[in-house]
Amino acid sequence: xxxxxxxxxxxxxxxxxxxxxxxxxxxxxxxxxxxxxxxxxxxxxxxxxxxxxxxxxxxxxxxxxxxxxxxxxxxxxxxxxxxxxxxxxxxxxxxxxxxxxxxxxxxxxxxxxxxxxxxxxxxxxxxxxxxxxxxxxxxxxxxxxxxxxxxxxxxxxxxxxxxxxxxxxxxxxxxxxxxxxxxxxxxxxxxxxxxxxxxxxxxxxxxxxxxxxxxxxxxxxxxxxxxxxxxxxxxxxxxxxxxxxxxxxxxxxxxxxxxxxxxxxxxxxxxxxxxxxxxxxxxxxxxxxxxxxxxxxxxxxxxxxxxxxxxxxxxxxxxxxxxxxxxxxxxxxxxxxxxxxxxxxxxxxxxxxxxxxxxxxxxxxxxxxxxxxxxxxxxxxxxxxxxxxxxxxxxx
Length: 396
Prior knowledge:
Layout: E1 2-6, E2 17-22, E3 33-48, H1 56-61, E4 69-76, H2 85-103, E5 111-114, H3 124-128, H4 141-148, E6 156-164, E7 169-177, E8 190-195, H5 201-213, E9 230-235, H6 244-264, E10 272-280, H7 283-295, H8 297-304, H9 310-319, E11 330-333, E12 336-339, H10 348-358, E13 362-368, E14 374-381
Parallel strand pairs: 4-5, 8-9, 10-13
Antiparallel strand pairs: 1-6, 2-3, 3-4, 3-9, 6-7, 7-8, 10-14, 11-12, 11-13
Keywords: Acyltransferase, Amino-acid biosynthesis, Arginine biosynthesis, Autocatalytic cleavage, Cytoplasm, Multifunctional enzyme, Transferase
Enzyme class: transferase
Site (Cleavage): 187-188
């Protein structure tokens, strides 16, 4: 048995880490450079984008040996350092050399994570000129999360405390950014999760993979997959407390809540919709159909226009190439029946009820395929007018 309690604020709830953010001049009047550090080296687990053109920070990370430990993460926004070749990777090493010299730091396998415009090398001189602004003993979660925000309209941070049956406790917290280029392959995002739990490295890897699959890999805004998508989990092990089942539940809760924040903050979005597919032949087909619905531009525009057009739902399921049958298919918007074999035409009463549901900021579209027992939910939003105005510089 265990108890999970939500905490105020973010990273400052977790012992063993320091973090902050400063203005280096890339944003007009906001933080654009940040850090996360620890006094001792810590384990780090990570998941990255499925995009074949992985940005330089990810390539730099992957050069380290398996199961390496670290004590520093450098964060920046406005420049993704993506599609910059080997020079982009070398620029990161140069920055860490300057950081070490400027602040007299003992850097062990330092990590960089970037977000912003693709195709430009980092301005090394401008970034390194701000290193002496870092307050290395700072614990300002708000400053850190603001340093990675780009088109985000609100900050995304969460924290929880877990109390086990024996009375011991551990904490977990995270910051996250993301608003555009979000696709079920992985949400466009930087996410940093810190914990003081005494968790083994193998559990970190296993549980983070599982958490990503049920959260960030289930959301969609615009159907594009970024070059910089990153989620990291680090543990200071400052608490002697740990329970695998408890950690799994709280990590899944935290990542699920953050992923829904991403959808809510989708560029121009006004609604968050759960696409539940049940009665599928198997889990793979349930996932495929649910993600097709969450990613369909036809469905997104119907959501934005509050048009209860079940035909777009049905056609998207059929196009996803899963086993289905129009006489077995059943579609609900929340508790309103839109379609089954006996209700193929939408009468005025059900249309009005469905339209009322679609005016809500959150609702569920449930589709029972009636061919099996597998279920899966994906999450998406409308795009509306914002879809045609997403910036052409392709932020990541």
